[in-house]
Automatic annotation (TrEMBL):
Gene: mvaD
Protein name, entry field: diphosphomevalonate decarboxylase
Biological source species: Dyella caseinilytica
Molecular function in Gene Ontology: diphosphomevalonate decarboxylase activity
Residue stretches making up the Mvd1 C-terminal domain: 189-313
Keyword check for Lyase: yes
Keywords in alphabetical order: ATP-binding, Lipid biosynthesis, Lipid metabolism, Lyase, Nucleotide-binding
């Protein structure tokens, strides 16, 4: 394969990239192939703006092992996942250099805010650039999916659909953009109800659900109809339709997980109170709806004109630690290495 590595002054192959987390509106839950991170259902998401992961990658000739830090700290479990991802890129480039990987998040990690999605999207984007691999966005999406399923969506910005695919090798399980962020610029208020890492990770939770939940087949059988509704709502900029299908998909996913044995309960009491607050706002005519991933943080999606009212209402809920405000953002992209310190 022809490629043109990006060497810095020390001779290391170096690049830095940024990606944002994405929030699924029609949820992804369940894998048809764990090794390849192939989902049993498709999903539709929005990529956020002001939450980000910034990742610096240096492949060092002669270095035998990867050195990985996240927010300035080493993490052995995360380092294994990073090495597995780097191996995919090294195989494509035909090199065996160890890598130095430094990644930063400006939001809580492993707490239900899709830090793996932004983290591995940024890692694939930076690693491919450092090695000089000319990969299409679709190819980056497939590689990011191999590392963390929902990372397939964070390669793209705005509104994104990830197909579950049919092929055993997963080459057709790829994300694609549906609508640019600026074509329908909604806002998202994120109610932080806990900063702790969740006790049961998404992969373990999905496996438990598939093995024990009596609702698994119904979840799979109804997903295509949900995707059709959400896709049409996005393309038509129909807020009410998107609100209805998003809350429906969210509650359906959590019902599926709660019915596992033992049941998976990712919410806390504050999460539930935030749901009630959002529904009360909508009954008052405020254009807002909620969604919650595998964690306790609630995301309230709203019209730009409603963001201050929504933030104030969520901040008023006892137990809410902070409310983050973000628009919809772009996909993975190159950044100067100097931005890693900002």
């Amino acid at each position: 394969m022809n490629f043109e590595p990006r060497a810095d002054a020390s001779g290391a192959l170096h690049a830095a990239s940024q990606a944002q987390p994405n929030i699924a509106l029609v949820k992804y839950w369940g894998k048809r192939d764990t090794a390849l991170n192939l989902p049993v259902v498709g999903s539709i998401s929005i990529t956020l703006d002001s939450l980000w992961t910034r990742t610096d990658v240096r492949f060092v000739p002669g270095q035998k092992h990867d050195v990985v830090s996240l927010n300035g700290r080493s993490d052995e479990a995360e380092a294994k996942r990073v090495t597995a991802c780097m191996d995919l890129l090294r195989q494509r480039a035909g090199v065996d250099y160890g890598a130095e990987v430094a990644s930063q998040n400006n939001f809580p990690t492993a707490a239900g805010l899709a830090s793996s999605a932004s983290g591995f999207a940024a890692l694939v984007h930076a690693g491919a650039r450092a090695l000089g691999l000319e990969l299409s966005l679709a190819e980056q999406s497939v590689l990011a999916r191999r590392c963390s399923g929902s990372a397939a969506r964070s390669i793209f910005g705005g509104y994104v659909e990830w197909a579950h695919g049919q092929l055993a090798d997963g080459t057709d399980s790829v994300a694609r953009p549906l609508l640019d962020a600026d074509a329908w610029p909604l806002r998202v208020a994120v109610a932080i109800t806990s900063r702790a890492a969740k006790q049961i990770g998404s992969t373990e939770g999905m496996c438990r659900t598939a093995q024990t939940s009596p609702y698994q087949s119904a979840w799979i059988d109804t997903q295509e109809a949900d995707l059709d509704v959400a896709r049409n709502a996005i393309l038509a900029r129909d807020f009410d339709a998107l609100a209805a299908i998003s809350e429906y998909s969210c509650l359906k996913m959590h019902a599926l997980a709660m019915a596992s044995q033992p049941g998976l309960l990712y919410w806390n009491g504050t999460t539930v109170e935030c749901m009630h607050r959002v529904r009360a706002l909508r009954q008052q005519g405020v254009p807002v709806f909620f969604t919650v991933d595998a964690g306790p943080q609630l995301k309230a999606v709203c019209a730009p004109s409603a963001i201050e009212q929504v933030k104030a209402a969520l901040a008023d809920v006892p137990g809410v630690l902070d409310v983050l405000d973000t628009g919809l953002g772009a996909g993975a992209r190159a950044i100067p290495a100097s931005e890693l310190a900002t």
